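Q: Structure for this?
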Amino acid sequence: MEAGGVDAVCVRGACKAYGSGRRVLNVLDKLDMSVPKGSIYGLLGASGCGKTTLLSCTVGRRRLDGGEVWVLGGRPGEPGSGVPGPRIGYMPQEVALVGELTVRETLLYFGWLFGMSDEQIGERISFLQQLLDLPPLNKFVKLLSGGQQRRVSFAAALVHDPELLILDEPTVGLDPILRQAIWDYLVTITRDDHKTVIITTHYIEEARQAHTIGLMRAGRLLAEDSPAQLLGRYGSATLEDVFLILSSNQGPVDQGPEDPGMVDHGAGSLPMASSKEALHQSNGDVMVANGNGHTDSLALQRLPVNASAATAASGSYVYPTRPTPPMSAMFKGHIKALLVKSFLRILRHLGALGFIFIFPVLEVGVFFTAIGGDPQGLQLGVVNDELYAANMSNCAQYRAQYGAPGSVYTGGTEDDYGAPVGNCTVRMLSCAFLEYLDPRMAYQVFYEKREDALEVTRKGHSIGVLHFGPNFTEWLDARRRYGSELAPEEVDLGEIPIWMDMSNRQLGTIMTKSIIDSYHAFSKDLLSRCHANPKIGEIPVHFEDPVYGAENPDFAVFAAPGIILTMIFFLTTGLTATVMITERQEGLWDRSLVAGVTAWESLLAHVVTQGVLMGIQAGLALIMMFLVFKVPCVGYMGDVVSLVFITGMTGMCFGFFVSVSCQTVTSANFMSLGSFYPIILLSGVIWPLEGMSTILRWIALCLPTTLSTTSLRNIMLRGWGLSKPEVYIGFLVTGIWAAVLITMCMIILKYRK
Ligand SMILES: Nc1ncnc2c1ncn2[C@@H]1O[C@H](COP(=O)(O)OP(=O)(O)OP(=O)(O)O)[C@@H](O)[C@H]1O
């Protein structure tokens, strides 16, 4: 072994636990480890003993609860340490690659992350192709077998020829010849180039080729020495036997730290052996019971802390470094790699493409075709006693026989007020009125008895019933002629009682309004024909042209601003959260951070990618809304576009927040869905804020899309601009939300390790 007296990695008193309270799991328990520079260090141990945790603390992806780690002369994560960064090559246990990239693009991605030029990467690719027997370079990673993917993952860790290689089970699933080639290569680079390698493997015997073996169990190193020393000391033929002996003397692992069966680092000796059963229980997947049941007391096999390690740990030792590309070049490389990767990934993912391009068009299309139209095809019951008195069953029959119902002016004198007296004949006004009702909205079904018509409404088959009395025409006309001279019961005889089914508020209200509007039109026509002032028949209230909006406002136009904003907000949230959690679950996020990408750079690349995609989504949605469905906008279109864009960016920040708060896509979906309903219900999209209680209104005003919805409505329907507080407040609150969410993400990312 050519250690040169310097430790590339030095771990002292490392403690790490997962969970808290009664569920706490101590994974590293005052662990010491020394990895000499220019050597291969084989870290061996049963599944779940903490190897990956130790390695992730070494590369700076997790923070120790106690103790210290020194890597290449610095503390991981400290400025200037170069760790994480290009000095390390890290191959995690999971494949941690992008399925949508080809093998060549994958290696380019990692090469760019490490600040390499395309030529340098090309040379390394040719070399690695031979060394690792890589699959065809133009093949997509997702189409490779598990073993091929692992080889590409290994190549990605080697592409920049790092000083320190940290390999978490690199040889799993590879054929023995390739495994040997890899070990030969590791031996060569440690010997000739003075590189350092830490490798974990489940093939214990292949670790014989390492210079140092660390045997790990229950969060501690049972031994740390060269394979030859270990085999000699325990008189064993295999490392597996050595491990079995050491484990058997450490005892069961499920006991607390105070348990006498645990290793005592300070004393340097172990108590008498524990039972063989406990050994089997605790380490079933690695241990092979040899049946000899060692009971000797064994010294804890650890290398003494050498001088260089001690000085490194004290912080005074200056580790030899090699130049890394300047920060600006690294930044450019990182951003280039992250952007190319993100765009290629999305453009090659059919589902994502559909989500980006078809969803907004579909959603806006569905909204405007489904919402705001007048109901059609309703049934309206009619009981017309004056028609039956004339022995007819419906108005069509009357018209066929006598011509159009209504009023006809026959000339003559006028009274003092100018009203025609006796010279305007009226006939079958019930039918004249019924002809004013919109036949597309409701078709009329005639009944002889009111009870029968009501029964049909009670069964839910008709929207309501209109009843005309036997002398309706006479009494309605009498109102015109005699006005206040009529007795109240005589006035009633000229009235049309109506029974409505109001269980469906929208249908009932729209039908009611339609009947009233029809009556106004009928009355106006009736009076005009009789040369009377049509206003006499109207209520003495006149609505002039509205100050803002249309005379008959469409519900879809009212809801459109809120719908477009919440849609863009949640589409962006969903896409951002899904992409980020998927990357994290695949291990790509961690791997990129170990390569030196900072959380800020990663967020910046995501902001650019998601911003472009969100821009496309927002553009499509706005085109659908204004050009296809012709939603009116009297304000400045630039303000509309900016507000939609800012809301989308806030949705993206919420997506970041969801992704750092949730571990899985499923829990992210729950969180997004859980926030979707309160936001859409309270943002004034469905019901105006003025209709809510004061407390609820204040809560609603704090939500990210409420004030922006009001602002957008003010721009579109009132034509107000950014100078009005009612408009800029929406921009302001949405921007504040974005800032708060992104700050929370950075805090979570900083402290959750
Ligand atoms: N993020 C986490 N939260 C809670 N527990 C965890 C977490 N990561 C790992 N563990 C637990 O910590 C223990 C050690 O895990 P670790 O992955 O370090 O083991 P390992 O030795 O690498 O195992 P293997 O050889 O199977 O990869 C395991 O019991 C595991 O379940």
